Amino acid sequence: MSECNVKILAIESSCDDTCAAVLSGTMLLSNVVAGQQVHHDYGGVVPELASRAHQQNIVPVVDIALKKAGVKKEEIDAIALTKGPGLMGSLLVGVSFAKALSIGLNRPLIEVNHMQAHILSHFIQTPNEEYSPPAFPFLCLTVSGGHTQIVLVKDYFDMQILGQTLDDAAGEAFDKAAKIMTLPYPGGPLVDKFAKEGNPKAFSFPTPHITALDFSFSGLKTSFLYLIRDGKINNPNFVEEHKNDLCASFQYRVVSILIDKITRAAEETGVKEIAIAGGVAANSGLRNALQEAAGRHNWKVYIPKMQYCTDNAAMIGITGYFKFLRSEFAGIDLVPNARFEFGRTPAGS
Fold first, then answer.
1. What's the topology of domain 138-306?
2. 304-323, pLDDT tens digit by residue?
């Protein structure tokens, strides 16, 4: 069997999106995502409701992915799944379904770390489009609702975390700022939308003094909360009247923190291949700031398509494919890990 003909069925269920994809080698054949509207009324993801929705969605999502790919389930060579990190109840649904399918089809399982998969999404190939993945080694700024990391990527699975958040993630900070302004869930994209019409210098927020390449966003959230509280004391309509400027100023500070840290990492490592990944990689302020930094520092940057920024199974599939080539299969006794980590120690050490 040719490596490029290896067909991977991938399943992702780490949070509130039920996802399935089919890849042939690095070529993406289908990528299906079913969101969960039930959480909008609660202003955030409710784990128990997420798990129930996954149970309802997973069979039709996998079926649609196979049909869109034009692949029969018997033609699949392996099943890749998200082991973690994520919500335990959500992960259990994906892992349990993958196990049952593995037994029924007599196909091997491949466990995937969700955060590694975000990074490797840059290697997904799509029909009739230029394929230009990063060259090793490269730095990846991985930013999502649950994680903020700078990763030195030496090979597909030789990844070293150089810095990460000490408290809250950048994506969580965006969502909390939106909630403080009583914007509907999910708030992060709305902050980005309103920021485009605002003045990023209208309000000033402190820069955390964190050593090395680590991050902290809890103080920034607190500062934003106090600004809104004090503003409302004198003007009950403070948020509505200054919404665009508030969003622009908050986004500017978050993005400047991220860019400053990745710039330091590039200087310390000498690496000029720079990528971003994760849900916050969809933020227009971050994407634009990275392009501007690339011009100043002579970087070659890699910005993922929007569909690969948020949770998806295509990234699980590409990671599964590279593991398939290394014959890294999981046993039927595998269990999900809500805090599945990687990269603090370089591979092979």
1. Nucleotidyltransferase; domain 5 (3.30.420)
2. 999 999 999 999 999 999 99
